[in-house]
Design goal:
Length: about 525
Amino acid sequence: MPTVEELYRNYGILADATEQVGQHKDAYQVILDGVKGGTKEKRLAAQFIPKFFKHFPELADSAINAQLDLCEDEDVSIRRQAIKELPQFATGENLPRVADILTQLLQTDDSAEFNLVNNALLSIFKMDAKGTLGGLFSQILQGEDIVRERAIKFLSTKLKTLPDEVLTKEVEELILTESKKVLEDVTGEEFVLFMKILSGLKSLQTVSGRQQLVELVAEQADLEQTFSPSDPDCVDRLLQCTRQAVPLFSKNVHSTRFVTYFCEQVLPNLSTLTTPVEGLDIQLEVLKLLAEMSSFCGDMEKLETNLRKLFDKLLEYMPLPPEEAENGENASNEEPKLQFSYVECLLYSFHQLGRKLPDFLTAKLNADKLKDFKIRLQYFARGLQVYIRQLRLALQGKTGEALKTEENKIKVVALKITNNINVLIKDLFHIPPSYKSTVTLSWKPVQKVEIGQKRANEDTSSGSPPKKSPGGPKRDARQIYNPPSGKYSSNLGNFNYEQRGAFRGSRGGRGWGTRGNRSRGRLY
């Protein structure tokens, strides 16, 4: 083993040789042997080996292996120095191997080392993006679980930081191709990360690109398979996939496949849905997703059949008025429970799909059923007016911090929900029923109201209580707000699904969340 003095002497030989440095193979070999010495010798070797690496192609394997030994040294300072210098070995055909090595080194628990590995990977990414991706995806497909997990997270966080000259169209095509291979066998959390990666690619911002992503999600969601409402993994998979698909839909990228599946397979089983997520109103989450997708549904093959299923489900949440006793009082002494959050979703979805078949209520239903529906609408509308007045009085004069209390947040959302339902019911009371009004779903961001838009629409998109009108008598301000018996959603914003990774799939044997543990050891 060479001493510190011998390492410096041989370094001097190589440094002084300038253009003839390649003729001093023996001197470079002494430096390679420095990795077998003590701490000082290793520290010097970690710096000297990469400096002259390119001059000795015949010793490339030996040099890379020597540096890797230093990357695994017990001394953290030696490891850090060796990792920092690894990009200097990323030349020509060695680059994919170095990328593979750096990807494996992501498993370190030392934060400083981890940052060095990340920086080194970014450095070689800028040298050769395709080669670097080859190393990363090799480990994602074949490496140990901890390496796979961190490699995926590296791609999901770092790709967006790279300049356009690095992420060329060809590089993005490679990312898509390799990602499709990985998506054949992923956990739920991995799937979400890959959708984040892919949806951020410039080449997939087009209509055709978005359509590709929707097809990938549809494949993951197993829309060709019969839905199993009693299997929480099946339900979870559908919700996660649909949640990823919703932002991709537009007037040019249709949600028809998903909406059809929800109408045919999910709605009829709504009451039997199960989920592993404790405290989650799974039925409401499904209805929210359906409502969001319904705006972008294209031509549907079985429109009337599916619209009828949606209508039937809506009726379940639109009660008939209670029967009155001879004295004119409620015979049952119990008002039906009005579940406003459910009705908002179902009524909105029916309103959106009803536009495609505007004569459904008048020509497709018999007279008795239409009469029954209008009685239900009228009863619901009466209850709405009472709750809207109570909510407005409860929120009147409250601004800023006062509106941020948990109780007032719920009231603000409740006001949005009831206003939305009110507008939609008014549309359906037209003769013939109208489908022209536009509302913003209560959990969606508030949209600016266009000048000239109807007052009814203005109410529905307002997240705060209405402003006082300049004149006219007010209702009794002393009226106490009583929380209505209707069921409001306590989810006040966009629903962020917990990525549990606890799914099993029909693909590959590992499926969502059941990827087999690998113990592959060092693959350098």
